[in-house]
Design a protein that fits this description.
Layout (H helix, E strand, L loop, with lengths): L25 H9 L11 H17 L7 E6 L1 H12 L5 E5 L2 H9 L9 E4 L16 E5 L1 E2 L4 E2 L13 E5 L16 E4 L11 E6 L1 H11 L11 H9 L9 H17 L1 H22 L3 E3 L11 E6 L5 H10 L15 E5 L6 H17 L1
Parallel strand pairs: 2-3, 2-4, 4-7, 7-8
Antiparallel strand pairs: 1-9, 5-6, 8-9, 10-11, 11-12
Helix pairs in contact: 1-7, 2-7, 3-4, 5-6, 7-8, 8-10
Bound molecules: pyridoxal-5'-phosphate.
Length: 370
């Protein structure tokens, strides 16, 4: 099995295709070095506060935030934000779309002693479900992109929902790579280790005025909210370009570099064009290949940032991904709990189109020899 050497001229120049943490571009590391004087300095002083401010402004520009929307951040990554949601956004009851691991985990976080049982609309991995609209919920939550399956759901306000209900979207792997209208969401949250090619550990949330009002209302209510999970406190800190506790400065610098680059490419629309182009190469190759097929049946739901491709049972996908790994092409394994004979390839903004083409050539080379 072992011992397939992919010719160097076929190999991607950068072999990182993981869904997160994802490829960090060399220019981001240069940025880190240029600003190395900030590392090891107080996050309560102007240097780091200005950095937080530039990241917030960069996000505002990238997403074209309307007046009233605010960029809020805190520590703990997207998983921590699920608990922020349960503590600081859901008033009585939430409704969730669950069509993969991340949507399901978010729904589980809303099962708490102080909330009513969440309503969960489940559908098979590889599909995208939808709400009826008459669910009695004050938060509607779903992933923009389900990273475990490569299915992408639209960001549109739920028709028929109570007008005061908040639309809370997990955009961890989508943010920056899929174009959408931010006014269709009240909270669009993500962590920086995917399209933003930084390290994990922080969460960012684009919050509408209604979401800010909800956080204030719950913050002032009788509910016990641990300080770490208080969105109200995060909003107040973010307005001062601060976080409740110490943030990772290197993570912010890597993110700043990527944001500058993405805005320089032409913003969200341009970034989304690039991810779609790369994903399109993979989907059309898989459709033509006799041993491969896109996992997500409905082309409208095929993710432009996470491409999942089923491999025919006659070929062991694990053998394929192992050979790729031995050749320096890493993290093409499927989501661990999905349990399919599959490969999963991230086509985030920072991954070069040329490298996606090389990856295709490399996989063709290995498939002919397995
Ligand atoms: C990666 C991911 C998460 C988890 O992010 P962490 O920062 O590791 O908590 C959550 N949701 C989605 C959709 C993801 O892709």
């Amino acid at each position: 099995m072992a011992g397939i050497t992919i010719p160097v001229d076929l190999l991607p120049l950068d072999g990182r295709f993981g869904a997160g943490p994802s490829k960090v571009r060399a220019e981001q590391l240069d940025h880190l070095m240029t600003h190395q004087g900030l590392l090891g300095t107080s996050h309560r002083q102007a240097g780091v506060k200005d950095l937080v401010g530039r990241v917030r402004t960069g996000l505002r520009e990238l997403f074209g935030l309307p007046d009233g929307y605010e960029v809020v951040l805190g520590n703990g990554g997207s998983t921590a934000f699920w608990d922020v949601m349960a503590s600081s956004l859901i008033e009585k009851r939430s409704a969730h779309l669950s069509f993969g691991e991340f949507g399901a985990k978010c729904a589980t976080s809303a099962k708490t002693p102080w909330l009513e049982e969440p309503i969960v609309v489940s559908s098979e991995p590889g599909t995208v479900g939808s709400f009826d609209g008459d669910e009695p919920a004050d938060v509607f939550a779903w992933p923009h992109n389900e990273t475990s399956t490569g299915a992408s759901a639209p960001v549109t306000r739920v028709q028929g929902a109570d007008p005061s209900a908040l639309m809370v979207v997990d955009a961890t792997s989508a943010a920056g790579g899929i174009d959408f209208d931010v006014t269709q969401s009240d909270v669009y949250y993500f962590a920086p280790q995917k399209n933003f090619a930084s390290d994990g550990g922080l969460w960012f949330a684009l919050c509408s005025p209604a979401a800010i009002a909800r956080a204030e209302k719950l913050g002032a209510s009788e509910r016990y909210i641990p300080p770490f999970l208080s969105l109200q406190s995060a909003i107040e800190n973010s307005r001062l370009n601060q976080t409740l506790n110490t943030p990772a400065i290197a993570t912010l610098l890597l993110m700043e570099a990527q944001l500058n680059w993405m805005n320089g490419l032409g913003g969200l629309e341009a970034c989304a064009g690039q991810t779609s182009e790369k994903a399109g190469l993979l989907y059309s190759w898989a459709e033509k290949h006799e041993a491969l097929s896109p996992f997500v049946g409905n082309p409208d739901h095929r993710s432009p940032v996470i491409v999942t491709i089923d491999v025919d049972d006659s070929i062991d996908a694990t053998a394929l991904t192992s050979v790729l790994r031995e050749n320096g092409v890493v993290d093409t394994e499927p989501y661990r709990k999905l349990g399919r004979n599959q490969i999963r390839i991230a086509t985030f903004v920072g991954i070069a189109t040329d490298d996606v083409e090389r990856l295709i050539a490399s996989i063709d080379y290995v498939l002919e020899r397995l």
